[in-house]
Design goal:
heterodimer; A: 316 residues; alpha/beta; Rossmann fold; 2 domains; two-stranded antiparallel ribbon; 8 strands; 12% strand; elongated; B: 224 residues; mainly alpha; 7 helices; 0% strand; extended
């Protein structure tokens, strides 16, 4: 339940921190006075503050030190503890809209599996997932692990239409649904599939996404009937819906950018060779943190103006 | 007959698949029927594409309101479909994967669709902020509880949560905001989500039984 952060520190551009604090802090004080005097704030002002809180940390990067929460750490530890040569299936079940939030998780998990010399099978239940899967293969697998051989260390099954129907079949037979990989090469001639007949022969499945079909379908159609361990990385809005499955049916949940940042931080902490790789999760925590602070400030302002208006109404 | 035949097929297939779960030699039926389903589902792509064209072409034909957007939709659809089907600009030719590196399809996806999709999703931040400002007000007891919960989660999802409460002694670490956020997710959220899921599960079972027994016929295009 309890976790203690490794370090609490802000790093990055001092200029970014100063600009953010001065603009947002000053603006909020002005708005506070306006709220007490005149009531509600125009929504365009809300938009302006969100714009500043998101854009300044992007222009002048602010990064925060992160520590993995237990729910993220459990998935990290499972991958860490898998023996060399184990097979991990990563399913890219998302679209470009969700990609900024969940693609960093896919990249980090792929990186982790490959550095541990595990074999990775990529696939997608979403038509748009195949292209996003390609981005990870290009940016992580080929760029950072040029020595890994396609077919031996990793394989790409691509997208298959049929939603949960696909899972219903691959839980007992991969070849019935995927006779070939994405390049039309028979699975029988791909070394990684020599000992893999179905999902039940895979050591771990990680579903990255947040929609349908997605994590729930993987649990219902593969995890439970096939007794296969499942972990997931999902958009922040979806994570609360998956808590009922944790920890028995889901090993761990990476929720939103925070989950990605925690995983990246854990990876960097244990594998120094990744200290200089791009970590979009950690990078995006700056804008997200400031945006959250601004939203909270506006909630407080909203309540002040509400109580002021109510008090005035009573007096009148 | 027009009504009875689909009802009989539904009952027979449904009953067969339920029975097959309990009889091991029949378990492969599940895979076979799923493959049949996939073959049928492929036609939904044609139906979807055809419907998209029908709706937008009729808008263009009648020069209806916002017909310009329909024009962009039709051109975009036709363009991507042609490039995807004939693998135009694909370095590996017609036999290679459509998402091969440096293929035109992949480039269009990366440089057009991904930024557009991300932009649309990012706009949510602005509307969420505006909606939070207007909606999260301590008007009554329930709204106040919701407000406190939202605050804990918002702070708990940022490093500020820990910074603000790092002074709390270890024996009271539950009062640290990140731990409170974990408690909110593992306690009240979990209970609510589980209740909803059990409700949905029971609803699915009862609806399935109604369909199998022919009580629910709306899927045939009837009211009852």
């Amino acid at each position: 339940m309890n976790w203690v952060p490794r370090i609490i520190a802000i790093s990055g551009s001092d200029l970014g921190v100063i600009i953010s604090l001065v603009v947002i802090g000053g603006g909020m004080i002005w708005l506070l006075l306006q709220s007490i005097k005149a009531g509600d704030v125009d929504r365009r002002i809300v938009f302006l503050f969100i714009f500043i809180s998101v854009s300044v940390p992007i222009l002048f990067p602010i990064t925060f030190a992160e520590t993995a929460t237990p729910i993220v750490k459990k998935l990290y530890d499972r991958i860490e503890d898998l023996p060399e040569g184990s097979t991990v299936l990563i399913s890219f079940d998302f679209d470009p809209a969700m990609a900024p939030e969940v693609q960093p998780m896919a990249d980090a998990i792929t990186r982790h599996c490959l550095v541990k010399n595990q074999k990775v099978i990529f696939m997608s239940l979403w038509a748009t997932g195949q292209s996003l899967l390609n981005v990870t293969m290009q940016n992580v697998v080929k760029a950072e692990f040029p020595n890994k051989i396609y077919g031996v260390d990793y394989a790409n099954l691509g997208y298959k239409a049929g939603n949960e129907g696909v899972l219903n079949v691959i839980v007992s037979n991969f070849r019935k649904m995927f006779p070939t990989d994405v390049n039309n090469v028979s699975l029988d001639s791909i070394p990684i599939f020599k000992r893999i007949r179905s999902c039940q022969d895979v050591n771990l499945i990680v579903s990255i996404g947040g929609g349908k079909p997605g994590v729930k379908e993987w649990i219902l159609f593969v995890g439970d009937p096939g007794n296969v361990p499942i972990g997931c990385g999902v958009a922040a809005v979806v994570a609360p819906q998956l808590y009922p499955y944790y920890p028995k049916q889901l090993l761990g949940i990476l929720g939103g950018i925070k989950g990605a940042a925690e995983y990246e931080s854990e990876l960097i902490h244990h594998y120094k060779q990744f200290a200089h790789v791009d970590t979009p999760g950690l990078r995006m925590m700056g804008p997200q943190t400031l945006a959250h602070v601004v939203i909270m400030a506006f909630i407080i302002l909203g309540n002040i103006s509400f109580f002021v208006a109510r008090r005035r109404g009573r007096r009148q | 007959m027009r009504r009875q035949v689909p009802l009989i097929i539904t009952f027979f297939i449904g009953a067969l698949l339920i029975i097959s779960v309990f009889i091991p030699p029949m378990t492969s039926l599940k895979e076979t029927f799923t493959l049949y389903f996939d073959i049928i589902a492929v036609f939904a792509f044609f139906l979807g594409g055809g419907n998209l064209l029908r709706v937008h072409l009729s808008k263009l034909q009648g020069r209806k309101e916002d017909w310009g957007f329909s024009l962009v939709t039709v051109i975009g659809f036709a363009f991507m479909l042609t490039i995807g089907l004939f693998k135009i600009g694909n370095p590996g030719g017609i036999s290679a994967s459509i998402t091969a590196d440096d293929s035109l399809f992949q480039k269009l996806f990366n440089f057009v669709l991904v930024p557009l999709g991300s932009t649309m999703y990012a706009l949510l931040a602005f509307f969420v902020a505006s909606a939070s400002y207007r909606a999260f007000r301590a008007k009554n007891r329930e709204a106040t509880i919701l407000l406190i919960g939202a605050f804990i989660i918002l702070l708990g999802r940022t490093p500020f949560g820990m910074m603000l409460t790092s002074w709390v002694p270890d024996q009271f670490s539950i009062l640290q905001i990140p731990n409170l956020a974990i408690w909110v997710m593992n306690g009240p959220n979990l209970a609510g989500q589980r209740a909803i899921m059990i409700g949905i599960g029971l609803g699915v079972v009862s609806m399935s039984i109604r369909i199998l027994l022919g009580i629910e016929r709306s899927y045939l295009g009837e009211e009852q």
